Fold this protein.
Amino acid sequence: MSGATVRIAREEWRWLARSRVALVAGVLLLLLIITATFTSVQKHEAIDEARARYQSEQIEQFYNQPDRHPHRMVHYGQYVFRPLAPLAFFDTGVDAYTGNMVFLEGHRQNSANFAEARQSSLMLRFGQLTPAFVLQTLAPLLIIFLAFRALAGERERGTLRLMLAQGISARQIVSGKLIAHAAVAGAIVLPALLALTIMSASSGASAQALLIILGYCAYLIVWTLMALVLSALVPRARDALLALVALWMVTVVLLPRGLPELVAASQTLPTRIETEVAIGRDLKAIGDSHDPDDPYFNDFKMEVLARYGVSDVQDLPVQYAGLVAMEGERLTSDLFNRYAADANAREDRQNALVRTFGLASPLIAVRQLSMTLAGTDLDNHQDFLSQVESYRYSFVQHLNRMQAEQIPAVNPGEDPRIDASNWLEVPGFAYVAPNPLAYAGGRIAQSFGILAAWLAGLACLLILAARRLERIAR
Amino acid sequence: MSLFLAELKLTLRSRIAAAALFLLFLLAALAVWSGISLSDRQNAAIERVQAAHAQDLAAVARVYGQPDGDAGYGAYYTFYLTWDRPSPLAFAAIGQRDIQPFTLRVRTLGLHSQLYESENINAELALPGPFDWAFVLIYLAPLAVLVLLHDLVAGEREAGRLRLLLSLPGARGLWARRLGARYLLVLAALALPLVLGLMLTQAPLTLGAGSLLVAALYLAFWSGLGLLVAALVRSSGGGAATLLGCWIVLTLVAPTLATSAINSAIPAARGTDLSLAQREIVHAAWDKPKEETFDAFFVNHPEWRDTPPVTGRFHWKWYYAFHQVGDEAVAPQVAEYRASLAARERWTERVGWLLPTVSTQVLLHRLADTDLQAHLAYQDSIAALHRRIRYFYYPYVFEERPFTAADFERLPDYQPRPSGGSLAWGSLIALGLAALALLALSLRRAHRVEMVQPTATSRPGRGFLSKPAFT
Amino acid sequence: MKSETADAVLEARHLRHSYGARRVLDDLSLRVGAGEIYALLGGNGAGKSTTLNIFLGFVRPGSGSASVCGIDPSTAPDEARAALAYVPESVALYDHLSAYENIDYFLHLAGANRHRTSVIDPALDDVGLVASARGQRVGGFSKGMRQKVAIALALARNVPVLLLDEPTSGLDPRATAEFNDLLEAARKRGIATLMATHDLLSAAAVADRIGFLREGHLDEEVAANGGARFDVDALFRRYSERRESRTA
Ligand SMILES: Nc1ncnc2c1ncn2[C@@H]1O[C@H](COP(=O)(O)OP(=O)(O)O)[C@@H](O)[C@H]1O
Ligand SMILES: [Mg+2]
């Protein structure tokens, strides 16, 4: 790096420091990041605390239920609350759009309810104040604001010719400006870096935090390069600004909004009701436990009788109805899983399509990266739902087994119940947060690949633009 | 008038202006198409659901519509379908329709354990917000205004035409005419696709006129701001930067800050509370003396007081009574929950008094009936249906009358709520005042442009942006 | 003398003006009659443009008064502007419009609603803009051609007063000669022309009278003596004396 390059970078900083508008915009963005970080951390803690409290309250209530028939407890059910990922404060991702409370009961699959976006006014759709929002949406604008005149301004004023006439090469000038503005991009990421380091230290998600920072650095450098390329190509600073803002508009606002409708139109998601009806139909097709002549349940009965070596259900050491309930639950849960897998696959195809189109927008790549690493992407939610479903299945079967084993098979009386101490044997829901690096490694690599491709492409363009600058200014 | 036409022609002959206008028109047309596509998709989904539901209902009727059928079973297994079709204007302002459920089934059990079920949505697709006409208006149209107005004065100065222009006797009305011409062009680029969409969906004239009025006022606000900035700044770069700054604050920063403030000041956790509370009440009933349940139930349903008493362990009338008692017991929490949502809506409207972007959003989505309020109205229509089905079954259950196939023919029908688009007057007045005030201010300021001596020599600062950093 | 007998179309009486503490015009008086060309000669910063600005109504004089056809531009700028045409130092037009379209548009702005087409071509004839150039976009025009368009606009507006600011700066000798001929066209139409310039030769070639402006004050007026016009050498001597005395 030559002395001239460094000098040019220093000059650019001096100009930025002396320009009132640049200074004000920079300070405002910094304030915004800090506000976003603080409010987001605060909100994150409040939500986390509330969900943990509800979770422990509800399991307390479950354990404190009186003596009952286990089937009553199957419908008393359990509420499960989605815990927030430790880095969710940084990027809340889809959390506001997916419900966070699920009611679990026997042979029904309820939805996750009370998503924040459904309980907020439409203003929420303008965006949520998180560090990720500021870095993804606003930081590129600041970079554009500060860098659009870097080369076009020199050209407009005629100082570019002057510099070239003194034997400084366009490449030196361009690298000087690049150093100056890349440093600005670094300064923008700094507060987020601090917050992430502090927050991730206690949660053991530092690898994710590091990758997030890396992703945003790449993203902001992409914008720095973009600003300089356009500033080098366009003869007037004002035109560079308009062109850059148009680019920002397309890649940050338009594409992310426009693509979903295209994708949603190409791939239909079935509604809950259709799924419910279809599952009901499939269940009927397998067998009807109430029908004495039903072939499936007659086979089931024969198999049970054979297993216990008796010839009549009356002689079973367990309650036959309880066994039927368990078998029914097994069949239902199978179907739930099959339909959920299908719906998830459809959603995944939709999202994969967006990501493919996302080659055209570095924002889509960095957004995906950030959500995935922060543990707030859709896959993570799908994983939560599948953990919830398997817990639902296990706790319902637990209770069904109690019914089979503890409710007398013959003459149980009008109101058979089992002892309340049994409820304590049902384990509570233990959510295991998945590690994004393990389950989404490919996707993370893909996002980094896209960002790297942008970086490489723009760097080449910048070199070409520098050459052209030298040609036309001479 | 013909001078005005000359200005229109002049604007259209500028390549960058024509490109911006064409792009805006194209995007508005795309947005209208996209909105109609979503509306169609939701209508198709509703039809699919209706078909699936009809099959399901027929199967239930076959099993439980026996000559000696028990209404208790019939009520337990019969779901009632509700749906909320997009209003004819929904295509223009999709609002929350992409995230709120628009079909829901309920049965005679406790309403509040059924009402808050959500729909399968792909949250990642919903995250960036819908691409509809309202989006093009609120976000993109101001940028077109920016392109057309940021160098209105500075552009003439930089091109060296300003002194010649101002030396002409008719120069006084120049800025107003140019502003008017550009304003109308932007409005036309937006309105044309909307009108096409309105004709396709056959939306009521008043709703269409309402959204055009909102668009006209919102654009007037931005045009006023554009002219004000254009009259104040010294360079076109400064004009572009200043207007862009306003745009960022009004569409990105301020609404996000306001949302964050409103949602933390008004929590909506009562939804969770009421769900938990209702479960406790309903399930505790199994272990309480039946009289307690009935006493509570008869307070609001005295007409069933003298029906035959329940003696055995189980009777459907007791079962449905404790579900209803559960609903009634959580009424305070429900009211609080609804109040918190209403408060969030109210505060958003108030924020709109200060932020035209927000008031425009409020206005358009109220007209299109796609906001939170619309969803709450849908929930109300579900509650009304729930009440009707309860009262439909109560005579059978409480008087222990058989429920037969013929009775299945007489199930209550869901009455979809009437399309409830309305004009948010407060927001309209606020938006109108903001637009008028800015227009008046900016025209006055533009008038003074001719008094300012436009020489190339720099003069002592004239306040705002007198020394622009962007040249 | 002609100017003292004829009614003054353009008149300045005891103009004084300051920008802040800096005095720019100091008791400036002048009169220009119909069909007369008056050159206001002075160095950079002498106050020429300020004088024009006062006639244009862009600047309100500190004291004294100006009148254009009897109208005071500081109280009735629009009426005054309706009576005058102004050609700025560097003529800039709408680059994406042709010469013809530019004139049409500016005429329209100036309030001419009808019969524009019937005046534009004769005006372009008068300034000698070749027919082939009239339909071309002015983006590629030289300064001289732009000036022709601007003067054609002035002629087409058919106003009694023409104000020119440094019209010959940046013109080559041939374009300057053409410009001088243009002023003859204005003179023939009986237009009162006030031309601010620092170009002695051009002033001597066309002006009926030359006013020497120094530090905002009109030092001396010299009139052309009949057909012989000015004695350029004598003028030059005076002009440079003045400049020296000013720098001294
Ligand atoms: N708007 C202004 N504010 C302050 N000073 C000005 C302004 N316009 C002109 N001046 C000063 O007044 C003096 C006369 O200017 P001007 O009339 O433009 O001179 P010229 O004879 O060169 O046209 C110059 O010194 C100039 O710097
Ligand atoms: Mg001058």
